[in-house]
């Protein structure tokens, strides 16, 4: 790709770069068949994405068939798929609104019309389309359609991932330890406390023990005298 100098446009003393539709028309044609895909709350490797694409869409020829045959999941995480648009922006478009698959189980067959599905889908968001099975009435139990739903997930600006925030306040907060206060141990001294005997025991708890001891001694002594 060879580049060349283009004279600058100056307006009110500032350089202004003007882009026209013709400047972007070539790349718009290249990206018109592209599909935007990301996994909510996870960052799989490139190899994982390649294996997922090969197993799901190896024989798909039209990009719309990929969108209509959803929903998809990877590692039990929802896979969001959107058609590329010229004004595509990852943060504003993908994270602001997502195409959400809505299942309508046991919907009566006479309600499988465009007008009915539009009214039901409008209760959630902006209806986009129904999948191929619903359009062809190949499924009997469940009616599926895509609804554009406003979504504000948790987004980490530090590592640019969805589903968490890298902040210190999210970590477990360690409780402050209480201040240790030294207390002077209480000494059971018979010289300062008349309720304590010479062995450091409370005399009130030893009532009767001395009498029993005396009785034992007297019996022993009386027995020896006899």
From TrEMBL:
Species of origin: Solanum pinnatisectum (tansyleaf nightshade)
Protein name: DUF4283 domain-containing protein
PANTHER family (alphabetical): DUF4283 DOMAIN-CONTAINING PROTEIN, ENDONUCLEASE/EXONUCLEASE/PHOSPHATASE
């Amino acid at each position: 790709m060879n580049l060349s100098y283009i004279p600058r446009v100056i307006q009110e003393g500032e350089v202004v770069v003007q882009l026209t539709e013709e400047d972007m028309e070539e790349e718009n044609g290249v990206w018109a068949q592209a599909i935007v895909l990301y996994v909510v709350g996870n960052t799989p490797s490139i190899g994982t994405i390649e294996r997922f694409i090969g197993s799901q869409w190896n024989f798909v020829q039209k990009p719309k068939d990929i969108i209509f045959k959803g929903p998809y999941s990877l590692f039990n995480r929802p896979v969001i798929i959107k058609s590329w648009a010229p004004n595509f922006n990852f943060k504003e478009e993908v994270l602001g609104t997502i195409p959400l698959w809505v299942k309508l189980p046991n919907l009566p067959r006479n309600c499988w019309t465009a007008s009915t599905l539009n009214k039901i889908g409008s209760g959630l968001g902006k209806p986009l389309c129904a999948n191929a099975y619903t359009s062809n009435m190949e499924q009997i139990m469940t009616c599926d359609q895509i609804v554009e739903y406003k979504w504000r997930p948790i987004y980490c600006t530090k590592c640019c991932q969805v589903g968490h925030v890298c902040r210190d306040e999210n970590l477990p907060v360690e409780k402050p330890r209480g201040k240790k206060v030294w207390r002077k141990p209480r000494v059971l001294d018979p010289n300062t406390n008349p309720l304590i005997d010479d062995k450091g025991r409370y005399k009130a708890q030893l009532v009767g023990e001395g009498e029993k001891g005396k009785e034992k001694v007297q019996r022993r002594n009386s027995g020896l005298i006899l």
